[in-house]
UniProtKB/TrEMBL annotation, chains A, B:
Cross-referenced Gene3D superfamilies: DD-peptidase/beta-lactamase superfamily
InterPro entries noted in UniProt: Beta-lactam-related, Beta-lactam/transpept-like, Diverse_Enzym_Activities
PANTHER family, sorted: BETA-LACTAMASE-RELATED, BETA-LACTAMASE-RELATED DOMAIN-CONTAINING PROTEIN
Pfam families associated with the record: Beta-lactamase (PF00144)
Signal peptide: none
Coiled coil: none
SUPFAM superfamilies: beta-lactamase/transpeptidase-like
Organism superkingdom: Bacteria
Domain Beta-lactamase-related intervals: 129-416
Source organism of this protein record: Flavobacterium frigoritolerans
Name of protein: Beta-lactamase family protein
Amino acid sequence: MKQTYFNSSILFTCLAFIVGDIANAQEKTKYLNAEQSDPIKMGWMVGSPPPADRIPRFDDGSFFQFPALRWSVAHMRQFMPTINVSRGLGSSSPLETNIKSDIDKIKFTPLGEKKSITWEESLQKVYADGVIIMHHGKIVYEKYLGALTVDGQHAAMSVTKSFTGTLGISLVQEGLIDPTKLVSEYIPELQNSAFGDATVRQVMDMTTALQFSEDYADPNAEIWKFSAAGNPLPKPKNYDGPKTYYEYLPTVKKKGTHGEAFGYKTVNSDVLGWIIARVTGKTIAEVLSEKIWKKLGTDQDAYYSVDAIGTPFAGGGYNLGLRDMARFGQLILNNGKAGDEQIIPKSAIDDIKKGGDKKAFAKANYTLLKGWSYRNMWWITNNANGAFCARGVHGQVIYIDPKADMVIVRFASNPVASNAANDPYSLPAYEAVAKYLIKAK
Amino acid sequence: MKQTYFNSSILFTCLAFIVGDIANAQEKTKYLNAEQSDPIKMGWMVGSPPPADRIPRFDDGSFFQFPALRWSVAHMRQFMPTINVSRGLGSSSPLETNIKSDIDKIKFTPLGEKKSITWEESLQKVYADGVIIMHHGKIVYEKYLGALTVDGQHAAMSVTKSFTGTLGISLVQEGLIDPTKLVSEYIPELQNSAFGDATVRQVMDMTTALQFSEDYADPNAEIWKFSAAGNPLPKPKNYDGPKTYYEYLPTVKKKGTHGEAFGYKTVNSDVLGWIIARVTGKTIAEVLSEKIWKKLGTDQDAYYSVDAIGTPFAGGGYNLGLRDMARFGQLILNNGKAGDEQIIPKSAIDDIKKGGDKKAFAKANYTLLKGWSYRNMWWITNNANGAFCARGVHGQVIYIDPKADMVIVRFASNPVASNAANDPYSLPAYEAVAKYLIKAK
């Protein structure tokens, strides 16, 4: 059965890419560098028709193989059905600028290396597609690379989870969700799954104990079934597994004791998305539109990928413009206020900032993230500046540094999915920029 | 082979719906009326998950069966991959209003009937999803029904063709396309097809002589192969037909002599779209964005459905907001000017207005469209007011009346695809409103 599944030309496409590290097996491959793999220079999708070897495809998964992936992350809607997150009509909120051209020259030493490099050089290392740095609420740095333009949209990958978590904690503060309750009180369908006796809080902080492997090298890993379930393409005739996210989630089995250890499992975000949909009676796309996107003065509509019955992928399917991601990061930094309007309850942001259980986090053994924790689907660095962030594979990030009054947002298309590949060139870079901005005032 | 194709659960979905009259066979069925079939009251896609009988699906074609179709036309991107038509960033152009509430009470006699009805009643007859009437450049009437909202998008169906035609004649006036040349001079791939010895002008006015039946009752009709080719879903293993629009078009065979008779065949629009893509080196989505959408002060991005290699469907795949369609109609009425900017050459609009060959048109035997003609993919009424229009199945329309200085735009979801079902309640209604507005000044 597993073999059948893998042989299916239809399902082998998978949405797996969105949540994990499909490139793991290839990590030792020598990849083209950022300049060599520039998606515009490579000429993806140019011509009528484009040359056969310049057409990334969804059905065979080639759209997400490097270097085609560099084009695809800026054009996800061209491969799959999507649901709109409307900004409504009317003007966007102006984004003031105060460009500091010195930022490109800021030097830092990548983790595990001895020679320092510049911020500008680091963008090549992480295959950045676009970066904005906000300081005191103004754009001090803005750059577009790869296939991204100022009016384009890019896959946020697992940064999506932090949007889901932010909606979740907002609804908690509004009294619609009680995080101490069991998940099964909201979603009876999950009664007999691993989530049945987990609290909503455990789901929000990913301390649920789940039998759920995201190891792509293992053909029996649960992530494959999850991806197949979420794939919007028609299932092959011999396919007898779950056909949607909502059919898959009740099949997740428990492994261990909830609440003891942080375990980064995408399905938690989809369960939280389900709870949000259930208590509001709306899709998370509508909830995000109404609660945030229409109030934030965004420039552009955004969108989620969806499964075969139109369920937005709460764990990794969000796509948005870079400036709008900067506005969102600034909203979080501003404790939920955009202009004069309190869009998200301040108490929700406080709850994110206070962080999660450090001991539980430590059990997950992230070599580069010592002392961090995870709360409401945000990563809390617990560094001296109180920085916290949203992180997605292939280098997507929203990095918020309250002490430096700084937000960094970045889209990227690193051939290696795992952030372990980006962090050495990112985490010390963010701290160096923060230091520079604190001095610069 | 034909049978195999029809049995395929994957391909039987088809995009056929977009261009023709899939409901033809059912025309004598008694449908739910507009109120009974209200897509919001019917509760499509509400719930997590929605009830199984309230989930329209693409793969089995149910999304385009009435009454689900009433929801689907306002949510096409949730069923298929799409390509964005960016409005860029920045503010939209204001749409001034001067609401005339009397319009709802305007009476007219439907074609072939004896009793008059009101404008308001006519909206129910045509299953309108949204209507805007512009007079002297201001909104005098605006209404949303069905599943459409002011910030939503709706399928334009064959109104798409008039966008393609407008781009085509604009490029003619700019000198990029010579309409007297043979199609094969631009697209050598079409050399051996029916289009090989047709002129671009014949394609633009649909006076090509094609073996291309859009009769859905006939399983051998070419429209089925065209739809299968354009379907973005993976093709079944035993499928050996064309897999994209660009693979299909060269297979179209000639039947008769070009230039003699009007024949409304969607493939002409896709050939023109191909020519536009070839001479500009861009997709028509990019061309439309750059030439019109970014300059028109639109409220919203728009989008096209695409085939398996991302080709926008120039014959019927456009989706846009109602207010933006009103802005486009006003642009045409204003001879290509939006505000102070000449966006489209006036000569291009003049060329549309002058109309096509009436004798060639008459040969197509449209009972309700006596004396009309077709030019640059617009329908020219040749009535006393010089009105002309864009028309799409299920009731989509842009109706431009220069004498009354009026534009009517409408989205609809009539269970019957053919405009022959809408025209009796539409054409005399437009004329009655024009008469009222001319008096009202």
